[in-house]
Amino acid sequence: MSWETVIGLEIHAQLSTKSKLFSGGSTGFGAEPNTHVDLIDMGLPGVLPVANKEAFLKAIRFGLATNAVINQTSTFDRKNYFYPDLPKGYQITQMALPIVGEGSIKIEVDGVEKIINITRAHLEEDAGKSIHDLFEGETGVDLNRAGTPLLEIVSEPEISNAKEAVAYFKAIRQLVTFLDICDGNMAQGSMRCDVNVSIKKEGEEKLGTRAEIKNINSFKFIERAINHEVERQIRIIESGGSVVQETRLYDSVKNETRSMRSKEEANDYRYFPCPDLLPVVITDEELNNIRSNLPELPEQKEKRYVTDNSLDIAEAKIIASSKTMANMFEEACLKTDDSKLVANWLVGDVSALLNKDGIDIDESKLTPNNFAKMVERISDDTISGKIAKSVLEEVWDSGNDVDEIIQNKGLVQIQDESLLEEIGQKIIDANPKQVEAFKNGKDRLFGFFVGQVMKETQGKASPKSVNEILRKLLS
Amino acid sequence: MDKKTVANIAYLSRLKLNSDNEEKITSDLENIIKFVDQLDDVNVENIAPLTSPLEKTAKTRSDEVTAKNRKDVFLERAPKSNEDYFLVPRVVE
Amino acid sequence: MSIQYKTIAELRSMLDSKAISSKEIVEETYKLIDENNDLNAFITLNKEAAIAKSIEIENSPVKSALHGIPIAQKDLFCTKNLRTTCGSNILSNFIPPYSATVIENLENAGCISVGKTNMDEFAMGSSNETSFFGGVRNPWGQNLVPGGSSGGSASAVAAGLVPAATGTDTGGSIRQPASLCGITGLKPTYGRISRWGMIAFASSLDQAGPMARTAEDCAIMLNEMCSHDAKDTTSLSEDVPNFTKDLDSSIKGLKIGIVKEFDMSQLDTDVVSVFEESKKHYESLGAEFIEVSLPNISLSVPAYYVVAPAECSSNLSRFDGVKFGHRSKDPINLEELYIKTRSEGFGDEVKRRILIGSYVLSAGFYDAYYKKAQQVRRLIKNDFDSAFKKVDVIMSPTTRGAAFETGSKGSDPIQMYLEDLFTIPANLAGLPAMSLPNGMVNNKPIGLQLIGNFLDEKKILQVAHSFQKSTDWHLKTPKGTKLS
Question: What pLDDT is stored for residue C333 in this prediction?
Fold first, then answer.
């Protein structure tokens, strides 16, 4: 029996506004518990929400970038359920008229492109955080996150396997970071997703019963959770059982999904229009303004890197794959005319270090600014390319400032010609045999002298100057 | 409106009816629903629901942080809290 | 000097002529409250702070007509650092960290909040019998209810303890008790007064308003209560007019609508004759009566009893024992915490409405009930829109009869719901409406309702004021007619 997998993703992207969706509470991450909580976030009796316009503008950017329908009139609904970190006993969300309607995004798996349709993207408020393991017999509630604006991006069930799901999530993450509407930081929970998985017999029209796996926050876990869930469903069906429609939790430690009974007991959310919030209308002018100020997206960048910076398409793709990498490239290109050199560093050494550590560029300690500084020091001859390699490694490990490293380790290239002449003369004097052989036509020995000078200067000599001086001394 | 329905909506509402009021409230609910069933016969085809008497659009706010830290004010009003958190009986997921 | 039964306008001139000080008024007020303790009109008094403020403002420039005047606040408005219970056990110890915009507006105008008035629990009731703090007595009779839900405010004003009080009106909660207590009360256009800090019952229907002895006093109150508030996006940004200006305008040629579909045969004959008297009086003042048709008006009560419970079921979810308010003792787990807290915290009427609300919103019933009711609501609003093309105001009795005895409505909630038959339509359509005393039935006062067009509070105030200038129903007190 051959099975087809049908996957849909609901991605929650935390919008990078300063204040919350309905209050003036701060969205800053990592604050002391319950210190970023406004009267409204507390759900105190008598308080009322006021929508943050910026959240709409950010959501619209996403809509425009995915060629989606923008609902210039959108409304809010209440989703009713009880949970300790949901202060009002309902979540304000957009059920009936979301700000962003149908759109689509292109993904690529093993060189094959596929369009995934997006059903909708709507605004909603995040809940607080429940801490279950800090206190004996009790759960602690921190409402700092309560009310943070989320964009929930709902895909059509058109994803066929775990790899595609990861590629889709990566494409969305790439997009929201390029659009500057979400920081994409998965470790801090800025992006997380629920995955709907079902299986059906190959070729069959009707979708199988789906299970929803809640709250996955890494690429690795998306892939594992889906693979595990598909296996589980196949096992159930092949042994004559049937899949139950339910919410499941992925346990990354045990690498398994398990049923979340607590979420199942009451799933009648009794949605209805929120009477405290009137419809939000976006004018044509506002919409056009967002459209004309839309930042450059990855595909446009790729094209520009090829035409303006003479990169080849493979290099351009790698560099445009992440906002941070593209920023590095663009910032560094401001410091040198040699964009090919910059590309070589990114595609070569930087990518090699990323692969070695198995991390994403955003997780590394290298910042665009520091990288640009390194390139600048190469092009103004402060350091040689070879020294630069060791500087990069140092930055990679410590995150320290490039100039500081060069200063502290005394890596500044020796430019002093008389000093280089002195060293060159010393090498010549110490190696009469080689001098003689060279003068007798053994040209290859020139490299020997260069190497000796480099050794003597611990690589700090400018290779160009060393060449010139040795030619002169040996002539 | 049967007992099972009442039990379900009571659970959704996190309310429990006791032996004193269960029968009375159930029959009240039945009567109220019968009463509002008058709406059944009205023709509302093509009539948009009126969710607010103000047929206006929302005024929004600009993205500014205006709240200050009121942790102590909030936590001291809580039925149970420690120096940082609101506390409830341990939730098992 | 007794200040009992004095109006705001009267107290104002006494203060201005230095015949009395604000401190004396406030002290006298607390004496009156104390003497009339059996009314149970107040849940919490604010004596120390009120007296302190009366002294403090004595020497400051007069900010408004309310400067130095004692006002009672319905216990549904949050008052910073002063207990706010909403008549419920679940908030019986709740001290808000902030004040409602209405409270701030009034207090900034110099008024002195003397205490928080009793009310039906979460404003759900028409007799004040659902309050966790016990029923309120109507000063007009030993066992009479004051109406509800703003029964404490109505009773306090009717007994002459304070010249005015705040109320809120979701389906008649200002007008019905005003009618039953023989005072004047006004529910403004939805959005006129900010809802920030008003504990929500049904958000799309709730509106605060003044309760006082006269239309003039209501206008004085309204001048200070209304504001556009950025914290409530359903508060109107339209300019707030000066409601006391032009109050004396003639109503000659005014077109008053009488609703064809209001079935007078269901009313006490005495109520009908009082109503007919008032019509004659208005005719003598130069008004003209025109019959208007509101074909869907009979659906108001059923539509209301879908919409209001639906909104309330959601609004009251925040009372869960987690962050504030009552929590049941030693719950063994979270479910028990929720269920016990809420079951102990809410009374039966509140429970009934939450359950109805959950039911009409639940899967499979939403379209048949909630959506349908909101569609019907639009039909009702459309009816009013066409009626107001023909008339300036619409007039009806406020209530089906005068104040009834405690417990007399029996145990059928629908009988109680029908109390608001005449008042609910204005809430559904968001229109301003008021009640003013227009006669007595069996020695008990009853009221006349005036419904105005959207934002036309001034018109109904003028119409009410012209009546009060030429009649003395509003001067009647439980102790006899007051000399004006």
Answer: 95
C-beta neighbour count of C441 within 10 angstroms: 16
- Assign A256 to helix, strand or coil: strand
- The domain locations on chain C are 8-254+452-481
Length of chain B: 93
Q: Which portions of chain A are predicted below pLDDT 70? A: 1, 261-266
CB contact under 8 A, A33 and B84: yes
CA distances from A47 to A42, C77, C195, C317 (A): 9, 11, 8, 14
A281 touches chain C (CB under 8 A): no
Answer whether B86 sits within 8 Å of C237, measured CB to CB.
no
Conformation bin of residue A250: beta by default, left when phi > 0, alpha when psi is -120 to 50: beta
Q: How far is residue C388 from each of residues A348, C256, C291, C299, C451, measured CA to CA in Å?
A: 78, 10, 12, 19, 10
pLDDT the model gives residue C202: 98
Rounded Cα–Cα distance for residues A18 and A36 (Å): 11
Looking at domain C8-254+452-481, which of 3.10.20.70, 3.40.50.10860, 2.60.120.260, 3.90.1300.10 is its CATH number?
A: 3.90.1300.10
pTM: 0.91
**C124-160, pLDDT tens digit by residue?**
999 999 999 999 999 999 899 999 999 999 999 999 9
pLDDT digits (tens, 9 = 90+) for B36-92: 999 999 999 999 999 999 989 999 999 999 999 999 999 999 999 999 999 999 987
Q: Is the pLDDT of residue C96 over 60?
A: yes
Write down the domain spans for chain A.
3-287, 296-408, 417-474
Q: Does C313 touch chain A (CB under 8 A)?
A: yes
Q: Measuring CA to CA, which residue among C350, C446, C360, C358 is closest to residue C398?
A: C446
Instruction: Give the per-residue pLDDT at C412.
Output: 84
Which amino acid would we find at residue C64? S
CB contact under 8 A, B53 and C342: no
Overall average pLDDT of the C105-119 stretch = 98
Name which of A403-407, C181-185, C292-296, C336-340 the model is least confident about. Answer: A403-407
**CB contact at 8 A, A15 and A201:** no
Would you state the structure tokens that stand for residue C329, as one six-digit string? 């003792």
What pLDDT band is residue C484 in, cutting at 50, 70 and 90? low
> A222, A193 in Cβ contact below 8 A?
yes
Nearest partner of A88 among A39, A135, A131, judged by Cα: A39
Q: Which residue has the higher pLDDT, C84 or C420?
A: C84
Domain spans of chain B, in order of start: 3-40
Rounded CA-CA distance C454/C384 in Å is 10
pLDDT at site A424: 85
Residue B93, pLDDT score:
65
Domain A417-474 indexed as CATH 1.10.10.410: yes
Please state, in angstroms and rounded to a whole number, the distance separating the CA atoms of residues C321 and C300.
35
Contact C392, A111 (CB under 8 A): no
The set of chains that have 3 or more CB pairs under 8 A with A is B, C
Burial class (CB in 10 A: 0-12, 13-18, 19+), C482: middle
What is the distance of C-alpha C4 from the center of its chain?
A: 21
Distances (CA, A) of C120 to A77, B29, C113, C169: 28, 20, 20, 12
User: Chain A contacts of C206, Cβ < 8 Å?
Assistant: none
DSSP reduced 3-state for C214: coil
**Dihedral sign for Cα atoms in the order C158, C164, C166, C168:** positive
Residue C379 to residue C233: CA distance in whole angstroms:
25
Best interface-test mutation with C: which of A143, A272, A277, A281 has the largest number of C CBs within 10 A? A272
d(CA C484, CA C479): 14
Contact B42 C299 (CB under 8 A): yes
